[in-house]
Write a structure and sequence with these properties.
By secondary structure, the protein is of the alpha/beta class. Helices cover 48% and strands 13% of the residues. It has one domain: TIM Barrel. The strands form 3 sheets. The chain has a 7-stranded parallel beta sheet with strand order 1-4-5-8-9-10-11. Strands 2-3 form a two-stranded antiparallel ribbon. The chain has a two-stranded antiparallel sheet with strand order 6-7. It binds coproporphyrinogen III. The site of coproporphyrinogen III has 21 residues, from strand 3.
């Protein structure tokens, strides 16, 4: 494979010197880009895009053609794993993801099997290979998965949820059954991420979108412990290169020390945390990724630059920071404001290095 032309992202994750702070954006390929919507129309649906490696490659590259981002992220979804387990993922128009066969009883949970990624998720691995080839070393490619607990939320609720009533009922009334489900999910996520690494992903990120909805003790027992198992099972190196991992618990600010102790290279921060405070708490052990409020992107470019400067100044001098939003970019974001964000990070961060 060609050597990387821009390895700023990987260097920042290793906390090695960089000339500027690298930046990428969660959900950088998505509906705020008109070219994404055009490709999605041709593909017929979101799943039509995600399950076709040619389309997945095309949309992965779209934000990179517009903005000088420092990393690409595989275009896919966290819910491909439960889909491969047979739950039947679909998207009802305007309603978000749903499963045809959610886990509604003990028999459904007991009959779950760990999918072989080379079989039921081959389309994702093909996309990784194709994207890596198309990038030709321009920037590194990030692979990703949902966390075992976040996947379990969707599998048990059958889709998104406001109150997590069903998964929490399982957690409090049948904890051993939820542990069984999380054990299967942890094995599935580990195998899936390792298969992405083998296919060409140069870093991996675990999205724990819903761990932050749990009480302290339950977070540690049902979410963090399983992410620790996943991280421990990941290829630390592949083809002579270290493979960094990023763990992101939305709402995880209370648990930074605990998250930093599970063995990942970096910790993702949502926008509620002061990144300078996070650095003083865990910056000796891990790199930090984040954490601009995605809603800042609805203000005019000078205000965006001001908020970018606040995050950069809060982190302070030196490497170990990958700039990102604190959660995914909104579909209503003006693309020119994303351009302003990337430009502000690149220009304003130079004085910190
Ligand atoms: O970051 C990227 O550019 C990579 C692509 C990516 C998508 N989903 C594409 C997508 C990634 C990393 C995800 C992760 C994901 N998916 C998460 C974890 C991150 C987070 O946001 O907390 C979650 C919880 C999901 C589940 C999911 N997929 C939801 C809730 C939705 C509906 C969102 C909505 O706003 O309607 C999806 C669909 C989805 N995944 C879209 C995209 C671009 C929009 C689908 C469309 O085009 O209609």
């Amino acid at each position: 494979m060609a050597a990387l032309i821009n390895d700023t992202f990987l260097r920042a994750l290793r906390r090695e010197p960089v000339p500027y702070t690298p930046v990428w954006i969660m959900r950088q390929a998505g509906r705020y880009l008109p070219e994404y919507n055009a490709t999605r129309k041709r593909a017929g649906s979101f799943l039509g895009l995600a399950k076709n490696p040619d389309y997945a490659t095309e949309v992965t590259l779209q934000p990179l053609a517009r903005f000088p981002l420092d990393a690409a992220i595989l275009f896919s979804d966290i819910l491909t794993v439960p889909d491969a387990m047979g739950l039947g993922l679909y998207f009802a128009e305007g309603e978000g993801p749903k499963f045809e066969r959610p886990l509604r009883d003990e028999a459904a949970i007991r009959s779950l099997r760990v999918p072989e990624p080379r079989e039921s998720l081959a389309y994702v691995l093909d996309a990784v290979k194709q994207i890596r080839g198309a990038l030709a070393g321009k920037v590194p490619l990030i692979g990703f998965s949902g966390s075992p607990y976040t996947l379990a939320c969707y599998m048990v609720e059958g889709g998104g949820s406001d109150d997590f009533r069903q998964i929490k009922t399982l957690l409090y009334s049948r904890p051993e059954l939820l542990h069984h489900l999380l054990d299967i999910n942890a094995q599935a996520v580990t195998a899936y991420l390792n298969a992405q690494i083998e296919a060409g992903a140069q870093a991996v990120m675990i999205f724990d979108t819903w761990g932050g909805s749990l009480p302290d003790a339950a977070y540690r027992e049902f979410s963090l412990a399983y992410m620790q198992r996943v991280v421990a099972g990941l290829h630390a190196r592949w083809q002579g290169e270290a493979v960094p991992s990023i763990v992101f618990t939305k709402g995880g600010g209370l648990w930074l020390e605990a998250i930093a102790a599970i063995g990942s290279t970096a910790v993702g921060l949502d926008w509620t945390v002061d990144i300078g405070e996070a650095r003083s708490r865990i910056g000796e052990r891990v790199a930090l990724q984040g954490n601009l409020d995605p809603m800042v992107l609805f203000s005019p470019p000078p205000a965006i630059a001001g908020q970018v400067a606040r995050v950069l100044d809060a982190y302070g001098h030196g490497s170990g920071h990958v700039f990102n939003l604190g959660h995914g970019v909104s579909q209503f974001t003006p693309p020119e404001h994303v351009a302003a964000l990337v430009e502000a990070v690149h220009s304003l961060s130079r004085r910190h290095h």
